[in-house]
User: What shape does this take?
Amino acid sequence: GAGVSQTPSNKVTEKGKYVELRCDPISGHTALYWYRQSLGQGPEFLIYFQGTGAADDSGLPNDRFFAVRPEGSVSTLKIQRTERGDSAVYLCASSLRGTSSGNTIYFGEGSWLTVV
Amino acid sequence: AQSVTQPDIHITVSEGASLELRCNYSYGATPYLFWYVQSPGQGLQLLLKYFSGDTLVQGIKGFEAEFKRSQSSFNLRKPSVHWSDAAEYFCAVSRMDSSYKLIFGSGTRLLVRP
Assistant: This one.
């Protein structure tokens, strides 16, 4: 498909376990973003990649959260020692460029993480 | 700090009726402004955006929004609602120097009566 693809769509994990969420952006998009959406809230920014590097990771809540994009395309969000408060929908998004005013950010359908 | 307020958690309108969803923002300068729609199984979709110029912005699906600087508002409108418009609507802002960092409101859920 032509859109942002995220896997898994749903993940249930036990408290304390490690989780990886994968994002495949739109082909050719150099900018990639992760957002987190808790129940009843709007999405909150986590991290922005321009190419392979994290240009802004100011939204990551703590050091249990880490994201990589080693080849400038697919990205993985990694959560260590999961807590029940990490339960949320994790949204990935991409855009052709990062900070251009004409930029449109396209979102994936998200990965719903439940920590029990 | 920037913030976005969507004062209506739920709105119910009849099919064919007009719609206005409210959005107020807090920011010291002129922000970039967006409206997104979120439907089950479809993710967030951009309806329209305002960067500069004409304060009345046209978007997809027949939606429009008007930027009113004096009121710090960016309300979304549609003259005639269709049943397929039932969804969650999010207003968002960003700074000009970090347009990727969207600050979202908490959303308004639109229900459409047949």
